[in-house]
Every structure is written in C-alpha cells, then in structure tokens.
Amino acid sequence: VKATSYEPRAGQVADGLRRMGWRRSEASGEGGFAAGQPRYVFQVPFAGRSLEDIHDGLNQQWRRNIKKAEKAGVKVVRGDLEDLPAFHELYGETAERDRFVPRPLPYFQRMWSALTAEHPDRMRLYLAYHDGEVLAAATMLTVGDHVWYSYGASTARRREVQPSSAVQWRMMTDAHELGAAVYDLRGITDTLEESSHLLGLLRFKVGTGGEAVEYLGEWDYPLNRLLYRAFQLYLARR
To answer: Which of 1-10, 29-38, 194-203, 223-232 has the highest mean pLDDT?
Structure first.
C-alpha cells in the first residue's frame, strides 16, 4: 500500500536513529497497536470543516448508530475524578474482552491530577448512561489544537443502544467546539486480516471518515545486544 503523503524529515529521523544504534521496537504489540507510542494511528481532520461536514464524512453505519443512541435515550455527560472508578470498571471488562493488559485505577487518577493541574480542561472524562447505568466511557486529551481519544471502555450489555458511538460523537462535537484541527483516535493495526481480533476496532475508527497516519513509533537503544534479543523474545512469547 502506497502512502498518500510522506514527510521526508520523518524518514531522516528514522535513518539517523538506526545509524546511532537505535532499533524500532518489534515487541510493542500487534501491528504496532499496543505500543505506548503507537506507530499507526487514525485521525479525522477538523481544520476548515464544519460539524455538519464532519458528520457527513462518517460512514452510513456510524450515522445510523448515532441516531439509534439518540432514539434510545442514551445520555452522555462529562465526569470528574470521582467518576474514574466507574470508567475503570468498564475498562477492565473491555481489557478482558479485547485481550490486553489493563492499567490500574491509580494510573488514571494520577493522570487526571497531573494533567488537570496543567490545565483544567487538559483531560476530560465522558460517560454514556442508559436507564441510569453507565454503558460506555472514554477519556479525551487536548493539547493546543490536537485532541485525542485516549482510552475507551464499554460493557457488552445493551450494545444495541450504541453507547460507544454516542460517546465518540459527543467528544467529536466538543473537540470541534474547542477549535480542534485534528481529532486523533490513536492506535490501529497494520493488518486487514480477518483473523485479527482488533479488526473490529479498526473498522470502528475507519468509519469516522478520517485517514490512517504512520508515526515513528517506539524505538529502543540496546545497551547489551544479547540481553536485548533475549528480552525481545520474552516479550514476544508472553
């Protein structure tokens, strides 16, 4: 697959890292998805677009799901520090379902405290309620005109009311109101294989009508090459 655009400086940085002995991390997750700094992400350009343009750019399934959530009475509200445990309960269920290792609740509490200390709106929490129960939740980060959907969580219960779509559309709406130039849905895999358990997540993000973007990803500097190779094998076989 050929890229639609290419930033030459990124290639120069990668070449420079290799010459200095750095190695791209190969054990950072399926297709670069699970890395702390994912190599492949999905972004929706907002600059110069109205909210109506962005809505029209969603695929038919996305638009249908947003309408379903509205008709079902799903309410999306902004949460606070005391709502993080409710988010984390759903996040734990999501981790088990999607087969990844979840971060502990104190991680998110420290994250909230540190980021909101920089700016009260740096980190936001959104929760989707239906009949008084939280069915989905997500965190949103803002730095300048770049907005990230950073962590998402949902339960398998009552998925037919489309709470995750409702949360995403509320965050996209708020990001547009903040003047975002980019809405970043973060990591995606580099494979379209039907056997990938992350293919559903990729389809969910692609439905926003955005574009796949490749970054440099994570790199390691092996101080001891033998130990480094052993560590890479350990990570790959976990």
So the answer is: 223-232
Q: Under CATH, domain 8-237 is a member of which superfamily?
A: Gcn5-related N-acetyltransferase (GNAT) (3.40.630.30)
For the chain, the C-alpha Rg in angstroms (whole number) is 19
Q: What is the mean pLDDT of residues 204-222?
A: 88
Q: Domain-by-domain residue ranges, the chain?
A: 8-237
The answer to which of 184-188, 191-195, 233-237 has the lowest mean pLDDT is 191-195
Best CA proximity match to 137, nearest among 88, 66, 173, 186: 88
Maximum pairwise Cα distance, the chain: 59
Question: Which letter, b or e, does each residue of 62-83 get, where b requires 16 or more Cβ atoms within 10 Å of its Cβ?
Answer: bbebbeebeeeebebeebeeeb
Q: What's the burial of 32, exposed, middle or buried (CB within 10 Å: 0-12/13-18/19+)? A: buried
Closest-CA residue to 155 (of 131, 175, 189): 131
**What CA–CA distance (Å, rounded) separates 171 from 158?**
21
Please state the φ and ψ torsions of residue 126, each to the nearest 5 degrees. Answer: -120, 140
Nearest to 97 by CA among 136, 139, 57: 136
